[in-house]
């Protein structure tokens, strides 16, 4: 058992941040150096944190109004002439209303549109399931050739914005609104198609993404106090999927728990389970998937994350059950 | 991978040269010959494939011929530059007519047309931009081409390009809400570099447009959405050329091209069942005779 006592989860009182701010700051920073960068939105200038971008680059903020299908098509048209459009809208409206445009105009037509799903998952809490997007990972994962990036904190959000400008390709960037602490190391590098090893361990693996990464690290601390060494993988790329890291987790730890602010059906849990299921039988380990399984009841985001078991305590409980099953 | 056909390209350049020098009557004659050639290859492609959308292919052929032989500022031999005009066929089910037009323009060899819809052919039943030179975006689901064209027109404005963007839609396709989202934006952004061409053949898959979900008054709707509306006989080449002239003001141009579905073959014309009926060998022979 390898336990590194220096390696601890963010403290309970650690400052938390809205990733949209880091997104907007980095986008403006890059736009100053690169004239190809434009932003497209559906009246969501404020909720996409694009007010400063609009003020600084008025002609490069294309607000098409409340019209998501046109918004994504316009993005594809801009990309076809060599611009790098960041198409920003609340994730439920971007990915559901305009799904056929994302499929045909972006993924199938291979246009380097950066689809920015703002305030995803359960971010809109009390506004209800019409405004939640726990489905976005599931339905976008079904599209070949579309990168899916879910930054876990401010630093990773900035890195993701840089990466899609450095190497433009069709991509979905899930930009969280629910405030999270810093979880990635200052030295961590974002690599396309790779999970970030947030904590090493050799008894059980928790694969978390976005909001759930800091919670998984707390769960790992709790497990450590019970003498169990938990590996935490930060699934910053959902597509391409890091099958090597999943296979290594199955080979080197005895169970895998996934945790996502998204639907288990078709999301990260399904992705990880499908990789494990295809491993040689001797390498397979129990997989337990935490996430949404139904439309959310009324409640704020904190409440709903707890309701669906996305708490450190429940991650511990499920990890222990999975280990008992091994 | 499909690649440019030098011989065909030379032939296309000669045609363009002749069209430039021609008077209107000669121009119409030359374009008519080119369009009939395209219709003949559409008949062969659909007969061989056993599938296709012959009615819409024939209604749009004269529009495509006018654009590619005369109006568009393009160079099939080079990658599109900042100043290259852009064309999108939003009614992607009429791929056969587009493929034949592109082949006659030199984008790829006419021999490839024989592979239309065959296993692993680049020439899918709907055009794919990653496989077919000259195709700007993959279309097929209706209501996609115009929003992409709006994005291209915005990009041209942003980059200071004088390129124009042309998009052809079916009239039935105007029942898709995304088109009206795009038109609102096109007018709001003052996209005078955008030409929206509606192939007004008055038939959709199952019935007449006016019996399904009426489009009339289409001209008034387009005008109300902020377009400079032009009407043209979609089979009169000089009328189309005139209708494709630059915008008069700072508004997008909408051309209602009044066409006949199945144009050119008597037993196909204006018949709803020929939306995607496939000719028998005998019907194909008769069609080729009429298109000679």
Structural features, described:
- The complex is a heterodimer of chains A (326) and B (292).
- Chain A is built from twelve helices and twelve strands.
- Chain A has helices at residues 19-33, 51-56, 68-80, 91-97, 99-108, 136-141, 154-166, 212-225, 243-252, 268-277, 301-307, 312-325, and strands spanning 37-41, 61-63, 84-90, 114-118, 147-149, 171-175, 196-199, 204-208, 230-234, 237-239, 256-263, 287-292.
- Chain A has a seven-stranded mixed β-sheet, with helices on both faces.
- In chain A, strand 1 (37-41), helix 2 (51-56) and strand 2 (61-63) form a beta-alpha-beta unit.
- In chain A, 58% of the residues are buried.
- Residues 1-5 of chain A have low confidence and may be disordered.
- Chain B starts with 5 loop residues before the first helix and ends with a helix.
- Chain B has helices spanning 6-21, 24-49, 54-71, 95-105, 145-158, 177-188, 209-212, 218-224, 237-243, 281-290; strands spanning 86-89, 165-170, 194-200, 228-233, 253-258.
- In chain B, helix 1 packs antiparallel against helix 2 (24-49) and helix 3 (54-71) runs parallel beside helix 4 (95-105).
- In chain B, strand 2 (165-170), helix 6 and strand 3 form a beta-alpha-beta unit.
- The chains are: A alpha/beta (326), B alpha/beta (292).
- Chain A binds chain B through residues 38, 59-60, 62, 64-65, 67, 69-83, 85, 100-101, 104-105, 108-111, and chain B through 82, 86, 128-130, 136-141, 143-144, 146-156, 158-159, 161, 177-178, 181-182, 184-185, 188-189.
């Amino acid at each position: 058992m390898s336990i590194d006592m220096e390696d601890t989860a963010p403290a309970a009182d650690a400052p938390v941040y809205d990733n949209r701010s880091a997104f907007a700051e980095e986008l403006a920073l890059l736009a100053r150096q690169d004239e190809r960068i434009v932003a497209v939105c559906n009246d969501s200038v404020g909720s996409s944190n694009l007010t400063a971008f609009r003020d600084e680059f008025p002609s490069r903020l294309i607000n098409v109004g409340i019209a998501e299908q046109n918004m994504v098509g316009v993005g594809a048209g801009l990309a076809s002439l060599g611009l790098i459009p960041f198409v920003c809208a609340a994730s439920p409206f971007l990915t559901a209303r305009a799904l056929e445009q994302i499929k045909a105009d972006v993924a199938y037509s291979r246009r380097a549109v950066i689809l920015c799903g703002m305030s995803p998952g359960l971010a809109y809490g009390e506004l209800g399931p019409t405004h939640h997007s726990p489905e976005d990972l599931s339905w976008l994962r079904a599209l070949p050739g579309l990168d899916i990036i879910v930054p876990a904190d401010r630093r990773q959000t900035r890195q993701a914005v840089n990466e899609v400008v450095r190497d433009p390709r069709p991509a979905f960037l899930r930009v969280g609104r629910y405030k999270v602490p810093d979880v990635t190391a200052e030295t961590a590098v974002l690599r396309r198609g790779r999970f970030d090893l947030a904590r090493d361990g050799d008894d059980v693996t928790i694969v978390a993404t976005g909001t759930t990464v800091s919670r998984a690290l707390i769960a790992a601390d709790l497990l450590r106090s019970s003498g169990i060494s938990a590996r935490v993988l930060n699934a910053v790329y959902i597509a391409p999927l890091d099958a090597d890291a999943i296979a290594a987790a199955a080979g080197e730890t005895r169970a895998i728990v996934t945790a996502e602010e998204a639907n288990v059906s078709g999301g990260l849990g399904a992705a990880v389970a499908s990789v494990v299921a295809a491993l040689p039988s001797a390498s397979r380990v129990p997989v337990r998937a935490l996430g949404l399984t139904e439309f959310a009841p009324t409640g704020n985001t904190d409440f709903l994350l707890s309701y669906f078991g996305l708490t450190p305590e429940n991650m511990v409980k499920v990890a222990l059950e999975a280990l008992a099953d091994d | 991978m499909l690649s440019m056909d030098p011989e065909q390209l030379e032939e296309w350049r000669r045609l363009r040269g002749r069209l430039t020098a021609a008077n209107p009557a000669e121009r119409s004659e030359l374009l008519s010959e080119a369009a009939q050639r395209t219709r003949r290859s559409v008949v062969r492609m659909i007969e061989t494939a056993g599938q296709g959308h012959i009615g819409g292919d024939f209604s749009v052929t004269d529009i495509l011929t006018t654009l590619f032989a005369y109006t568009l500022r393009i160079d099939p031999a080079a990658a599109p530059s900042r100043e290259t005009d852009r064309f999108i066929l939003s009614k992607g089910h009429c791929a056969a007519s587009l493929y034949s037009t592109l082949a006659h323009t030199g984008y790829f060899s006419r021999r490839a047309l024989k592979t239309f819809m065959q296993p692993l052919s680049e020439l899918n039943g709907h055009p794919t931009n990653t496989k077919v030179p000259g195709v700007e975006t993959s279309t097929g689901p209706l209501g996609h081409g115009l929003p992409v064209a709006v994005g291209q027109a915005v990009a041209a404005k942003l980059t200071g390009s004088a390129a124009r963007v042309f998009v052809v839609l079916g009239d039935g396709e105007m029942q898709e809400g995304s088109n009206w989202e795009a038109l609102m934006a096109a007018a709001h952004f003052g996209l005078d570099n955008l030409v929206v061409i509606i192939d007004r053949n008055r038939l959709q898959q199952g019935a007449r447009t006016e019996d399904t979900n009426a489009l009339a008054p289409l001209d008034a709707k387009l005008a109300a959405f902020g377009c400079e509306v032009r009407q043209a006989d979609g089979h009169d080449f000089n009328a189309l050329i005139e209708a494709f002239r630059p915008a008069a003001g700072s508004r997008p141009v909408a051309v209602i091209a009044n066409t006949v579905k199945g144009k050119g073959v008597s037993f196909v014309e204006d018949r709803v069942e020929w939306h995607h009926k496939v000719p028998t060998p005998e019907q194909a022979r008769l069609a080729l005779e009429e298109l000679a």
